[in-house]
Design a protein that fits this description.
By secondary structure, the chain is an alpha+beta fold. It has helices at about 1-25, 160, 170-175, 190-195, 200-230, and strands at about 30-35, 40-45, 55-60, 65-75, 80-85, 95-100, 105-110, 115. Helix content is about 30%, strand content about 25%. β3 (about 55-60) and β4 form a beta hairpin.
Length: about 230
Amino acid sequence: MRILGVASASAALTLGAAGNALAGDIDEFSAEAKCDGGKGVITVTDADPAGVPATVTVYLENNGADVKKVGEQEVKGSREGTTISFAENWKPDAEYRVHVKATGYVDEDIKPNLVTPATACKKKEKEEPPASTPPAATPPATATPSATATPSASPSKPAEETGAPAPAPSESESTTPAGNPPAPSTGDSNLAETGADSNTGLIAGIAAVLVAVGGGAVFFGTRRRGAKNDN
């Protein structure tokens, strides 16, 4: 039993030491310089499956000395890896020191130091607004013909002079309707041909009245003479 107890204690110590070594291994941390939308960032990934909290500090280096402190963050690792980011507009071939400290486990830098890529991040070009559609061209206004027609420079010649045949008369002009004799034209009468004027009817009426009056006078005169002879 004593031997068994000693063996179990030894195994527990061994496993505990192995777990502590696994939790505090600096090889579980990695750093990388990247571009995010035209801006530079430095990312640190913690792949500690035990999830021991660790503090990560990033420094800009120049000739082996710290120039500035970029930032400091706390991270809890995972088997899949937990990543944190530091905003830094890094320059090409710049050097950064990344220090990791987990109390009781690890307190050292990630080796080797981080060196940025030889090409800087390109700034995202501004999107130009779409060109506005030009307005449709207005068609030129057409000239409106005048209400009155402009007379031609030279009057048209009659059909006899031009030699063109005269248009044939229509039916209404060439044919006189049956039963309606054509009315004589104004001013054309038989009286005009004989030299008489339009008072002939009036003179004839007056003459008839005078004849009737003369005949009556003769009749009454004859009766008066007959009466005297009888006396």
